[in-house]
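Our preliminary data section would be incomplete without showing what the modeling component actually yields. Below, a chain of 238 amino acids is followed by its predicted structure, encoded as tokens that our downstream tools consume directly.
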Amino acid sequence: GARFCGSCGVEVHDGSSVRATPATAAANDGSSRLAQTYITQALEAVGQQDTARATQLVDRALLAQPTNQEALSLRAQLTGPAIPRTAGEAGPGASGAPSANYVAAAAPGGVRPRGSRTMSFDEAIRTCLSKYASFSGRASRAEYWWWVLAVILLQVGLFAVAIAAGETSLAAAVGLAWIVVVLGTFLPSIAAAVRRLHDTDRSGSWLLLVFVPFGSLVLIVLLAQAGYRGPTRYGPQT
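Predicted structure:
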């Protein structure tokens, strides 16, 4: 006789022998085909010398089928070996994103684990300016908060100079410069905040909390949280 295990989706026969149900076999076959599609695209990216895209595609293949040996081998060649997550380790799936069961290993020239490198102040400024109106991708805590600090220091500095100048032509000029800075940094600040939320696996729509009483305090906490290691639905780790 056979009995069905609802939690694992298999039929158990005569003690230790098991046989996958048709639904389980179909799911595994679908995951294998999806992984193979990503691997094929990754190999094309390698041929185009686009290592970043190839790595991202291999990561997607491993999300679809963590045990795919071809994907594991290709990833090791690109960035270093993948380290399986432990059963209790949280991943992006905890908030709705595809659940990753691996993280990037530390390897020369590969993906750096979170916390191994912090973006510098000037690098953060250059990054946010180069992504002036980019609402896609992710931004690390260092990138976002260095940018916020720079904007605050610039605005406060100009405001202080305007106040110190009194009612003079210099005060008027500085006041005009302050307005230009406020308007000029508004869009990149919103874009950086959206990317920062993406890094925590949240949608940019969480910015609407600013219109809710005390929502700004909650938003600050969210923007200060650490991002996920490895790729998420919003892109690779930055």
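The beta strands are 2-5, 10-13, 17-20, 82-84, 102-104. Residues 3-13, 81-116 have pLDDT under 50 and may be disordered. Preliminary results of this kind motivate Aim 1 of the renewal.
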